[in-house]
Design a protein that fits this description.
With about 190 residues, the chain is of the alpha+beta class. Helices cover about 30% and strands about 20% of the residues. The strands form two sheets. The chain has a five-stranded antiparallel sheet with strand order 1-2-3-4-5, with helices on one face. A three-stranded antiparallel sheet has the order 6-7-8. Strand 3 and strand 4 form a beta hairpin. Helix 1 packs antiparallel against helix 2.
């Protein structure tokens, strides 16, 4: 399933599940937390408030971008909230907590995540801070997980549009179809 979204005000949220970290019996399920952010927030600052108020039940990387060009990656989970902001280099996130620097339990997905993150870091010189659609596509194609990448999405918050590829695995290596704002929301 897809746990990412874009609201009509241009706030985009993209999720990367984090593997090998502890979950909690109590806390807000991720789908409900992200739905609340997309429903109630229009800017990164408003999304930040909602995220900080939420006791997350599982570990995830949540990338938030707004129509004004502000962006951050939140590493959330039981008892944790770390924020990495857009700076000189593009923001990167895969399926592990980049702030930890240590591989959890060496699961196949966490090992894959670290390798994909290293590939993205190696590409930073060829990706501008505000990456073009082509740069994002190339990066997604380079790090697509061949056996589970069912859909691949690129959000353009300023234009309030979505580019989606699905129907083949890995989806990131397929054709991306544009969904303009007029096709996403009724006026």
């Amino acid at each position: 399933g897809v746990l990412s979204g874009l609201n009509r005000e241009g706030l985009a949220i993209a999720l990367n599940l984090v593997y090998g970290e502890e979950d909690a019996d109590e806390g807000v399920p991720l789908t409900l937390a992200l739905q609340r952010v997309l429903t109630e927030a229009t800017t990164l600052e408003e999304a930040d408030r909602r995220i900080r108020e939420t006791p997350f039940a599982s570990c995830n990387n949540v990338t938030v971008c707004d129509a004004g060009g502000r962006a951050a990656v939140y590493e959330v989970g039981p008892g944790r909230l770390d924020r990495r902001d857009l700076a000189a280099d593009p923001l990167l996130a895969t399926n592990h907590l980049a702030s930890c620097r240590v591989l959890p339990d060496g699961t196949p997905m966490s090992v894959s995540s670290h390798g994909r993150y290293r590939l993205l870091r190696g590409m930073r010189g060829s990706i501008r801070r505000r990456a073009s659609l082509g740069e994002v596509r190339r990066a997604l194609r380079r790090v697509a997980v061949p056996w589970i990448n069912l859909q691949s999405m690129i959000f353009d918050p300023a234009r309030r549009e979505l580019w989606l590829s699905m129907g083949r695995v890995p989806a990131a290596r397929g054709t991306f179809v544009r969904f303009p704002a007029s096709s996403l929301w009724r006026s």
